[in-house]
């Protein structure tokens, strides 16, 4: 399956992201050493191949673990059965909500930092999706003290968070929260992609160290994972 600019633009629109002039092929065929095209074309000896495979698997496992954490923390708010706000309104104790919001911020930052540890074009694309989710909900997040920093991570003003009224908190993190929903879907997709890449790395080398899977198969895999609205 060949990727076209139109296909990527359609996925970006569905995800609620303004299409850019940069295509998925640009990400995949970027000149950096960790681009997919570069990985597919590498010829290494067996020992180097084994080391590269282990490093790649470890990196993808870290991404998967952090992405799973993002999904789990977002689900604390998007789960229709959640009693977080009902319990807080009944008891007047909002500490559990504050703690769970902080966990969302912490898990976002951990995943964002992990994605940035390697100069992978696909990691960059995942990072961009995370930032877009924040930017498109910046007003509601700002109202509870959450802001996007220049380095792409999130900051939280706990005084502003605790000063927010119930309606403001619900708008940002209630069961209908657009930010929590998008973050959960992005986390799930990044986790699935990382898992698929672990399997790909495990099975992608022949005894000579060359990549054995076709680029068409990998292109199909990539496009199936980048949809932050599900």
Write the layout of secondary structure elements.
Elements: H1 5-14, H2 24-28, H3 36-41, H4 46-78, H5 84-91, H6 95-115, H7 121-135, H8 138-142, E1 146-148, E2 154-156, H9 158-163, H10 166-173, H11 178-203, H12 215-223
Antiparallel strand pairs: 1-2
Helix pairs in contact: 4-6, 4-11, 7-11
Describe it for me?
By secondary structure, this protein is an all-alpha fold. It has twelve helices and two strands. It has a two-stranded antiparallel ribbon with strand order 1-2.
Short description:
The chain is about 65% helix and about 5% strand. It contains 12 helices and 2 strands.
What descriptors fit this protein?
66% helix; 230 residues; mainly alpha; two-stranded antiparallel sheet
> What is the overall shape?
elongated
Helix/strand order: HHHHHHHHEEHHHH
The count of helical stretches stands at 12
Portion in beta strands: under 5%
């Amino acid at each position: 399956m060949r990727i076209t600019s139109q296909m990527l633009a359609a996925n970006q629109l569905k995800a609620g992201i303004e299409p850019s002039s940069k295509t998925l092929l640009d990400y995949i065929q970027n000149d950096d050493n960790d681009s997919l095209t570069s990985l597919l074309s590498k010829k290494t000896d067996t020992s180097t191949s084994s080391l590269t495979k282990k490093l790649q698997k470890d990196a993808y496992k870290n991404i998967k673990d952090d992405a799973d954490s993002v999904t789990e923390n977002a689900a604390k708010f998007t789960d229709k059965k959640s009693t977080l706000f009902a319990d807080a309104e009944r008891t007047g104790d909002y500490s559990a909500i504050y703690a769970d919001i902080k966990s969302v911020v912490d898990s976002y930052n951990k995943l964002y930092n992990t994605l940035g540890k390697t100069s992978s074009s696909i990691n960059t694309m995942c990072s961009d999706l995370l930032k877009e989710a924040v930017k498109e909900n910046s007003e509601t997040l700002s109202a509870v003290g959450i802001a996007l920093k220049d380095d792409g991570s999130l900051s939280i003003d706990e005084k502003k968070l605790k000063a927010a009224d119930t309606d403001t908190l619900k708008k940002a993190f209630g069961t209908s929260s657009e930010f929590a929903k998008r973050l959960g879907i992005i986390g799930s997709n990044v986790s699935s992609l990382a898992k698929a890449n672990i399997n790909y790395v495990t099975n992608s080398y022949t005894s000579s160290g060359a990549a054995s899977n076709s680029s068409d198969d990998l292109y199909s895999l990539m496009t199936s994972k980048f949809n932050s609205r599900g």
